[in-house]
Amino acid sequence: MKKIRSFNFENHKKLIFFGGVYSNAEAFKAFLELMDNEEVSMDRLFHSGDLLAYCSSPKEVIQLIKERDINSILGNVEQQIVQEKSDCGCNFNEGSLCDTLSNQWYQFAKNQIDKKDKEYLSTFSDLIKIRYHQSNILLCHGSPNQISKYLFNSSRPEEFEKTIDQSLSDIDIIISGHSGIPFCRFINEKLWINTGALGMPANDGTNRTWFVELNQEGTTIHYQLRSLIYDFEKEAELMRQNQLPEQYAKALETGLWPSLDILPEKEKDQTAIPIKEFKGKLIINNKDQQ
């Protein structure tokens, strides 16, 4: 049985969604500073999972999200750690470079955190449902029914459709993470948004990382893919000091992933092409798409 938390934000205009912090405290602190500067209260922030992964500061990012009391769901990495599993549960192809490197960073993360950290991670829900200005939002990690499901902008519609069962018929917006590349698309009149990752670039040849903003105006919900600039050089150096995989330290610097094994052909072809920030809107009263 999945653990689901519910929220009602009928009277709030801005919500922020982010995920894939990946133990990158430098990116996370820059993001939180940006939210403070924009006067976004922490109860309007939602984390889509994978707080822990490749980078140098698993314990620090746990403390940051705990201190700020940010609404969070489990990513596959947190789920595996809480359940004392021996691997990250990332669904990498067996024997791939990502699979091999994951053994190193996953063990590092497990060794850095303690029992109290695990107990805190175990309080995260599997899904979050939000009532937001006459619309219903579902926050999941990979997909509503599979935590480690990779879905991309080029994935076939049926790949999305088979993750949406009848119990989600009232959902207008699905927000996910896991795959690491942000996108927005419509699937059978539902808006599906991937937040991208806050702790690792999107394989677009830039050092930027990504999150999502929703705003409400009348019957219209405005959605935006936003990028973040932070001190990636400092984080890369911290990774090297902790003897974490050099391939991921370089990825922070180059904006390019060390392996493209999980990517569909279209996303592979878009390697090193900078992603543009994007704005769109959803009209709730008749579900018009624009």
Protein topology:
Layout (H helix, E strand, L loop, with lengths): L3 E5 L5 E5 L6 H13 L7 E3 L10 H10 L3 E2 L3 H7 L14 H16 L2 H7 L5 E6 L2 E5 L17 H5 L11 E4 L6 E5 L2 E5 L14 E9 L2 E9 L3 H10 L4 H9 L10 H5 L8 E6 L4 E2 L1
Parallel strand pairs: 1-5, 2-3, 3-4, 6-7, 7-9
Antiparallel strand pairs: 2-10, 5-6, 8-9, 10-11, 11-12, 12-13
Q: Indicate the proportion of strand residues.
A: 15-25%
What's the number of helices? 9
> Helical content, roughly?
25-40%
Number of domains as seen in the coordinates: 1
| SSE order | EEHEHEHHHEEHEEEEEHHHEE
- Which class best fits the helix and strand makeup? alpha/beta
Spatial strand arrangement across the major sheet: 4-3-2-10-11-12-13
Q: How many strands appear in the DSSP assignment?
A: 13
Radius of gyration: 18 Å
User: Which topology does CATH recognise?
Assistant: Purple Acid Phosphatase, chain A, domain 2
CATH class: Alpha Beta
Low-pLDDT parts are none
The biggest beta sheet is recorded as: 7 strands, mixed
Shape: globular
CATH homologous superfamily assignment: Metallo-dependent phosphatases
Q: What does this 3D model show about the protein?
A:
- This protein is α/β, with parallel strands linked by helices.
- The chain has one domain: Metallo-dependent phosphatases (Purple Acid Phosphatase, chain A, domain 2, 4-Layer Sandwich), CATH 3.60.21.10.
- 28% of the residues lie in helices and 23% in strands.
- It is built from 9 helices and 13 strands.
- It has a 7-stranded mixed sheet. A 6-stranded mixed sheet has the order 1-5-6-7-9-8.
- β3, α2 and β4 form a beta-alpha-beta unit.
- α7 packs antiparallel against α8.
- The longest helix is centred in the middle third of the chain and has 16 residues.
- The chain is globular and about 55 Å long.
- The N and C termini lie far apart (36 Å).
- The mean pLDDT is 94.
